[in-house]
Specification:
heterodimer; B: seven-stranded mixed sheet; four-stranded antiparallel sheet
């Protein structure tokens, strides 16, 4: 199985901050990488697909980059509604695997 | 706009079989894979498996043959059964639509969107 490792596991930040979350795959997955946001009590929501493509309806302050094994999700200017958990997921092969998650908290 | 709605029993005893259903409203049923993903309380996401309209299935080997999935194209519904449950199977179970893309690695499920609201399944004696 491809292991997905996110860092950090948790992060405290303030409204207006620029935040970067990292995801590393245990083997090369090209750009087959997606990012999801999950708020408490809700289902995950797709933010970024294919490493860098913004899902329709997602604010442009979210961006993704990377290829191969190393990927990043960046939020350019945090808004109150962005405090949530974020997960990366590889779609290169089965079993499809997720990172352990990054919890973004208000400082 | 496509919506998924799921339902099923929320409380099971050890050794029983988990059974969940998911209905798809709007959009095509045949152009996607239909997936199940679970999340133990306070933990991360685990992919269970996926099925398409023709019955082609991909499963997570970690569940060691306990998973059965089916799809009913006449109702635009798909189902999950997980046998011999234990406390370790306690989780919120989600159904989701899996987009299919094709590239140099073949055709594959690229991402999950949208997701249903989730069902908390608790296994307890």
């Amino acid at each position: 199985d491809i292991q997905m490792t996110q860092s950090p596991s948790s992060l405290s930040a303030s409204v207006g901050d620029r935040v970067t979350i990292t995801c590393r795959a245990s083997q090369i997955i090209s750009s087959y990488l997606n990012w999801y946001q999950q708020k408490p009590g809700e289902a995950p929501k797709l933010l970024i697909y294919s490493a860098s493509s913004l899902q329709s309806g997602v604010p442009s302050r979210f961006s993704g980059s990377g290829s191969g094994t190393d990927f990043t999700l960046t939020i350019s200017s945090l808004q109150l509604e962005d405090f949530a958990a974020y997960y990366c997921q590889q779609s290169y092969t089965t079993p499809r695997t997720f990172g352990q998650g990054t919890r973004l908290e208000i400082k | 706009q496509v919506q998924l709605q799921q339902w099923g029993a929320g409380l099971l005893k050890p050794s029983e079989t988990l059974s969940l259903n998911c209905a798809v409203y709007g959009g095509s049923f045949s152009d996607y894979y239909w997936s199940w993903i679970r999340q133990p309380p306070g933990k991360g996401l685990e992919w269970i498996g996926e099925i398409n309209h023709g019955g082609s299935i991909n499963n997570n080997p970690s569940l060691r043959g306990r998973v059965t999935m089916s799809a009913d194209t006449s109702k635009n519904q798909f189902s999950l059964r997980l046998s011999s449950v234990t406390a370790a199977d306690t989780a919120v179970y989600y159904c989701a639509r899996g987009r299919v893309d094709c590239s140099d690695i073949g055709c594959y499920v690229s991402w999950f969107d949208p997701w249903a609201q989730g069902t908390l399944v608790t296994v307890s004696s």
